[in-house]
Amino acid sequence: MAIRITRRDLLNGMAIGAGGVLLPAHGVERGMSLYTPASPVVPSNYYPPTLTGMRGSHVGSFEVAHALAWQGQKPASYKSLEEHYDLVVVGAGMSGLAAAWYYLKKAGPEARVLVLDNHDDFGGHAKRNEFNHKGRMLLSLGGAQNLDSPSNYGDVAGSLLIDIGIDEATIAQMAADTPDDCVLGGKLNGDVGLTVPDGDDHLTIGGHWFKFFHGRGDYEAAVRELPLPEDQQDKLLAFFGGEKDFLDDLSLVNKWDYVNNTSYNQFLFDRVGLSRETIPILNAHLLILNGPSGWNHTVLEAIMAGSPGLRAMGWLADFVDSVAAMLIDDLAGDIRMFPDGNASVARLLVQKMIPDVAPGMKGVEDVAITRFDYGALDLTDQAVRIRLNSTAVGVKEVGDKVQVDYVQHGKPCRVTASRCVLACYNNLIPHLCPEMSDAQKEGLGYGERMPFVYANVLLENGEAFSELGVSITQCPYDPFQWVSAAPTMTTGGYEPPRGPEDPMVVFMMASPTPADGTKGTTRDLLRMGRHKIYASTFDDYEQQIREQLQRMLGRHGFDHERDIKAITVNRIPHGYAYWYQGLDDPEWEEGQAPHEIGRQQFGRISIANTDSEVTPLMNAAFDAAYRAVEEQIS
Ligand SMILES: Cc1cc2nc3c(=O)[nH]c(=O)nc-3n(C[C@H](O)[C@H](O)[C@H](O)COP(=O)(O)OP(=O)(O)OC[C@H]3O[C@@H](n4cnc5c(N)ncnc54)[C@H](O)[C@@H]3O)c2cc1C
Closest by alpha carbon to 573, among 481, 456, 482, 449? Predict the structure, then answer.
């Protein structure tokens, strides 16, 4: 069922609602940059979190870097700003912001630090999406979601959290502030649905599919509801239930070999007997959690990521219940989320370094609801300056200084620093520093970041969505493979929707990496996913979103034309840092892995960011920042 978009008064995701015109704070038009080249002064209403339409890698953020990386083009000359800093950081993601903080702590408040970022907002992946409708603020995630096991953060990363007010008491309070059905916020005992095509509509089968997948709860009844042939239902039941060892013809050694060298989907196909039409049901989890599908995970990697299968190996049956319990219960105890995800962590850190962005903000208790003054980010006479819309194109050691060239609003500028930390993407660094050795450049160029698309859809009310009976559901056959209510915790002073009659935000997650068994290494497929993102227009996403939501919610009275009030699409072509893949990558000797060769100190230049740790987590971003700063000033 193709849904036609008939109301073309939707401008870049903004709808004209019955109650008045819903405009972002600036009323910018589709695809326009917030500044004009002629006016590099921050307008007083500059507030990127409320912008709708195509966000994430937005128009104006990537063109300069692509010209450099793809065509080797950059400006021939630069205007010297006569600005010298103790440290210039390239990248205002969590790693770059942390590098500025660790440096200040070491060097003292007299230090002068400049942080550059090509986007119109700070935070890197940790981005905030904010809507204001009918007198209510509605928040959601524009990228990085949660504090993943903060109790396991090492001393360095943990100390940063404490510095910005996220201590043990706060972490405990965050759990208390999160409702029991907010699965995204770490309450993994809340129900998780499964949404599948059912004629022209989609059927959402409630219950707790994370548990059903592992043979817990009434999984038999749930599987029997799936519109699948009976023999496929039987196979799923045998697989989830664990009555059968699907590798029983193999010795223990051969089993180990098999689970380390066979793709999860090949196992499902060959051994479990699932058809290619059924397999997507077991892939939605991997796609959103990890990026690639089960064709690019070994059996063991998939199981370690929480996919079903442990019960079907026989040899580990004794541990099944404890492992399943750990996945479902213990893990839930250690995920903490702000209503705008890790954007609040970025905001706490920025406000700590530049208090004038939010002089009245108390801290964790009101971080989610405080409006920031972006005009205060880059003022003279402050220890840290954050300069947005600025793409670094050259970083070079010249004598006892580092010369940093960047382009802001089309203008080539030059500053100098005593040191530089590159907290951007590894792939770009060889283009910024062509003087590096070929071996280092090769190491930096090895990994591919994992692409994602996160969309947020403002609805007039939550009435149809509440009829689903779950706050989150997996949609294996749809472009957005997970759909959830936006976070509903009260952390940070946030007031989530009070009930279905209030406006709500639907949060939709997609992995664009081919999931259909397309051949190629994971890195090849990640590149294809990235190209797909750049080839898709906002209209493409809007069409997909309307179709998907109409199919899911139409049977509950939803009308996409009437009920959708705004859409924000965060495209994240350079997403998770790459980590080594069992099916593709060799086991390198210590010190010889590409990221280890790539991240070596290069004179007055050091390399931070999660790529350098091959770990897409915030604590890794902090650890990398600390290492880079230590290299420069210890
Ligand atoms: C969709 C998604 C969900 C995630 N969820 C979680 C989660 O729940 N928990 C968790 O711990 N982690 C999560 N992560 C991982 C996340 O990547 C890290 O937590 C962390 O935010 C990464 O920080 P970073 O600074 O290394 O990289 P980034 O966030 O990528 O920041 C790098 C910044 O450098 C900028 N840059 C690049 N080149 C240049 C240039 N030439 N000039 C200027 N600036 C440049 C980039 O545009 C970017 O803003 C998630 C990631 C994604 C993509």
Answer: 449
Say whether pLDDT at 355 is over 50: yes
Closest-CA residue, ligand 1 atom 48, reads 124
* Any ligand 1 atom below 6 A from CB of 91: yes
Residue owning tokens 């199981």:
303
The finding on whether 116 has its CB within 6 A of some atom of ligand 1 is: yes
3-state SS class at 31: coil
- Give 550-598 pLDDT, tens digit per residue: 999 999 999 999 999 999 999 999 999 999 999 999 999 999 999 999 9
Which tens digit of pLDDT belongs to each residue from 543-554?
Answer: 999 999 999 999
Residue with tokens 């990221």: 595
Residue 137's alpha-carbon distances to 134, 176, 357, 590, in angstroms, are 9, 21, 20, 49
CB of 424 closer than 6 A to ligand 1? Answer: yes
The amino acid that residue 241 corresponds to is G
User: For domain 63-122+377-447+580-633, is the CATH number 3.40.50.300?
Assistant: no
Size (the chain), residues: 634
* 8 Å CB contact between 497 and 438: no
Q: How far is the CA of 609 from the centre of ligand 1 (A)?
A: 8
Topology at the third CATH level for domain 16-22+45-60+126-186+450-576: Polyamine Oxidase; Chain A, domain 2 (3.90.660)
Q: Whose CA is nearest to atom 1 of ligand 1?
A: 143
* CA pair distance 403, 397, nearest whole angstrom: 6
Quote the pLDDT of residue 583: 97
Q: Is 476 in the pocket of ligand 1 (CB under 6 A)?
A: no
* Distance of CA 126 from the midpoint of ligand 1 (Å): 7
Other Cβ atoms closer than 10 A to 214:
26
For ligand 1, the distance from its centroid to the CA atom of residue 542, given in whole angstroms, is: 25
The CA 260 to ligand 1 mean position distance, Å, reads: 29
Residue 272 φ/ψ, nearest 5 degrees? -85, -25
Nearest Cα residue to atom 53 of ligand 1: 575
Residue-level pLDDT at 460: 98
For the Cβ of 119 lying below 6 angstroms from any atom of ligand 1, the answer is: yes
- The pLDDT assigned to 266 comes to 97
Task: Tell whether ligand 1 has an atom less than 6 A from the beta carbon of residue 143.
Answer: yes
Atom of ligand 1 nearest to the CA of 64: 41
Name the packing angle between helices 618-633 and 94-107 (round to 10°).
40
Does any ligand 1 atom lie closer than 6 A to the CB of residue 117?
Answer: yes
Atom of ligand 1 nearest to the CA of 452: 1
Where would I find the H helices in 427-521?
429-432, 438-445, 463-466
Question: Which pLDDT score is estimated for 311?
Answer: 74
Q: How confident is the model at residue 167 (pLDDT cuts 50, 70, 90)?
A: very high
Q: Which residues contact 253 (CB under 8 A, 6 or more apart)?
A: none
Task: Print the SS3 string covering 314-356.
Answer: CCCHHHHHHHHHHHHHHHHHHEECCCCCCHHHHHHHHHHHCHH
CA separation for the pair 585, 587 (Å, rounded): 7
Say if ligand 1 is within 6 A of residue 579 CB: no
Q: How confident is the model at residue 325 (pLDDT cuts 50, 70, 90)?
A: low
Q: How do the domains of the chain map onto residue ranges?
A: 16-22+45-60+126-186+450-576, 63-122+377-447+580-633, 193-334
- pTM higher than 0.90, yes or no? yes
Residue 97 near ligand 1, beta carbon < 6 Å: no
Name the closest-CA residue to atom 9, ligand 1. Answer: 146
